[in-house]
Design brief:
Elements: H1 2-5, H2 19-23, H3 36-59, H4 68-89, H5 93-113, H6 126-148, H7 150-155, H8 167-214, H9 220-264
Helix pairs in contact: 3-5, 4-5, 4-9, 5-9, 6-8, 6-9, 8-9
Length: 268
């Protein structure tokens, strides 16, 4: 059995020895310095383009999407636009909705690839989620700098405080430093939250599958209960992981929109 000959944690970790290719007798070391997560990220981007470019062509004239397949994918976009972008960003929502769509779809497809055996979720890597958080950070503050101007943007962090002996200046600068540091913390939390949830979920699944491998040489009266119990637990947790895949894509997108709205409209 392939499962007995590999490390179940290969499903969780990035590697250039992808056992999926070994299982179909194509060799297993990826060429050109590629790793499993790089290939899966390209696959996620390709799937998004393959689905949404034809959908965009179908509805570009204002006609509604027809059929359950196209409606299922269109509703994801309308939900992010109407329930995330507009409430969080306000009148600037239409300008930044495509960015939020890209975040949501890329994270969602990356998460869902982990539900396929021998594949994995690129978002289970802190490097991937860190890059996503860095892009979100650049969008959040870059958009605010473009809208308000660099000087006005920086000055908005320094509150006016009436205090004796001009101490209000130092207090204001201290508060500004805390606010600026807080933005870096927010970006860090975006990366860690997504990574931790996806990595932890797949790790739990790997541990449960590992129980089957460890029990393969035990007596049959132990192996079958362990095997069936582990299989049932994996199926049940897979449904939970499916929910988490959608939830974490939504949370990352929602918080990015919330932070973007707060920098574009600091008066609120």
């Amino acid at each position: 059995m392939i499962l007995a000959s590999i490390n179940p944690f290969e499903h969780v970790l990035d590697t250039d020895h992808w056992h999926f290719f070994e299982s179909i007798h194509l060799g297993f070391k990826l060429p050109f310095g590629l790793t499993k997560y790089i290939v899966l990220q390209l696959l996620a981007a390709g799937l998004i383009c393959a689905i949404y470019i034809p959908l965009a062509r179908k509805i570009k004239n204002g006609q509604p999407a027809r059929g359950w397949f196209w409606n299922a994918f269109e509703v994801l976009l309308t939900y992010i636009r109407d329930e995330v972008a507009k409430p969080c960003i306000g009148h600037d929502a239409d300008k930044y909705t495509p960015f939020l769509w890209t975040f949501f779809l890329y994270i969602l497809f990356s998460n869902l690839l982990g539900m396929i055996p021998f594949f994995g979720s690129p978002t289970a890597s802190l490097f991937v989620t860190g890059a996503l958080a860095l892009v979100a950070f650049g969008l959040i503050h870059g958009a605010a700098i473009i809208k308000h101007g660099p000087w006005h943007y920086l000055v908005s962090y320094v509150p006016h405080i009436d205090a004796p002996f001009k101490s209000g200046i130092f207090i204001g600068l201290f508060i500004a430093a805390i606010e600026i540091f807080g933005h870096f913390i927010k970006a860090f939390v975006l990366a860690v939250r997504l990574f931790a949830n996806i990595f932890a979920g797949h790790t739990v699944l790997a541990v449960i599958l590992l129980l089957i491998v460890l029990a393969k040489d035990t007596a049959s009266f132990l192996f079958w209960p362990i095997g069936f119990g582990s299989a049932f637990a994996v199926v049940a947790l897979s449904f939970l992981e499916l929910f988490v895949a959608f939830l974490q894509a939504f949370v990352f997108t929602f918080l990015s929109a919330l932070f973007l709205g707060s920098t574009l409209h600091p008066e609120h």
